[in-house]
Amino acid sequence: MNLLTGRPARVWAGFAGAAVLLFAVAPLALSDFRLGLLAKYLCTAMVAVGVCLAWGRGGLLTLGQGVFFGLGGYAMAMHLKIADAGPGNLPDFMQLYGTATELPWWWKPFENPLFALAATVLLPMAVAALLGLFIFRRRVKGAYFAILSQALAAALAIWLIGQQATTGGTNGLTDIQGFFGYSLDDPVNQRMVYFVIAAALLLLIVIARQLINSRYGELLVAVRDSEERVRFLGYDPANVKLVAYVVAAGMAGLAGALFVPAVGIISPALIGIVPSIEFVIGAAVGGRASLVGAVLGAVAVAWAKTALSEEFPAAWTYFQGLLFVVALAFLPGGLASLAVLVRRRRATTEKKPTAIPVGEAA
Questions:
Q1: How confident is the model at residue 115 (pLDDT cuts 50, 70, 90)?
Q2: What is d(CA 325, CA 124) in angstroms, rounded to the nearest whole number?
Q3: Per the confidence metrics, is the pTM higher than 0.85?
Q4: Crossing angle of helices 273-286 and 291-309, rounded to 10°
């Protein structure tokens, strides 16, 4: 089924409703501060769309999405820091921590805005392609794949922390003032960033839905359920999984890139093991096999983190872990599965034959 032929009225009505909520209701109902928080949550939801594709449909428990989120975020932040510094000047943290008199060679390409924009998506996808070829060709899967992806997130965070003179170290790239010529101190421009993020989220949902409902989506589910049968039919399961992994990485990279102007910072604390798990928790709670469930779950968990971590800063991480375990153990399909059960029960009830009175039967 696709957007144009399968249940078109219902699909388009839901999409239009989401657009109205994001572009009309939210800006009118929320203050600038709350709208900024929603923009941050929507970036998390963008990652959840990729998780839904890779994990919900492909069975790839991607516990390392922080790697790709960070690559996209740092690619965007590097360009914005160069632009904030002005022509011929070094970013502020390099003047404070470093001894270099010019930009490092690997920073220089990010002076070009087109290169930086392309890198936010293509760099995570390229890294995912290299990792995926190495992992899937060797048939690494299940818990081993999840642990390896988590180790990659930890390795990236540790490397960034150790490069203080060129990446900002533990602090990361902070105090970002502009976004392609627009000042982020202006509330009007902050709303513009929100609208860009909302539009990007809807676009990713459309792309993911088309992939899921295409022939490739059916093949991805087949690989998840019976990899050996798919191989027997002449398909290479490694290539099928690689596509889902690379697309999910590109979505996470775009989310990281848009997170930077929304929040004004990117740091190793936002891309390590804990953030990577948080990305997956949202999709698991909402329903990893449902795009709507994954998006709503990601937003809800991100909101809960903001609301509850202030009251219980020491216990919130444990609560997140418990939430993940409970969701997988007792509600594998997430909250979205409850709606499916209700619809099935209603359909079963409607199909039951009505009893015929004895008199009429005679």
A1: very high
A2: 28
A3: yes
A4: 130
